[in-house]
Write a structure and sequence with these properties.
With 108 residues, the chain is of the alpha+beta class. It has 4 helices and 5 strands.
């Protein structure tokens, strides 16, 4: 399989029903912050995502990814929340928005 291009623009996949529920049930200020982050993401290259200090793109090592997914990652979606996602070619496939920081990493 070809290595994904770090200079290609990020494409968003917001189709996961869990992600949609989490996004749409956020309180208005957090929902707007999350939408601002999503808008920012779609204008970035993957290299910019990896380096952006505000997003804090981090590999989640405490959770084993599902079959067919190389690794799960977290990123800051608003001031108080992080989303989980994985990279699939040029797509960032968003999975969840955690209710708090620790639950992103599978901690209790």
């Amino acid at each position: 399989m070809a290595q994904p291009d770090r200079d290609s623009l990020v494409r968003l996949d917001l189709n996961n029903p869990v992600f949609q529920t989490h996004l749409l049930t956020l309180q208005k200020p957090e929902r707007h912050a999350a939408l601002d982050t999503l808008n920012k993401l779609r204008q970035m290259t993957w290299n910019q995502v990896y380096r952006d200090a505000g997003l804090k793109w981090e590999k989640i090592v405490s959770i084993k990814p599902p079959a067919g997914i190389e690794a799960l990652y977290s990123l800051r979606i608003s001031q108080a929340r992080r989303a989980t996602a994985y990279r699939d070619g040029d797509f960032i496939r968003l999975l969840t928005i955690a209710p708090d920081h620790d639950s992103t990493y599978g901690k209790k």
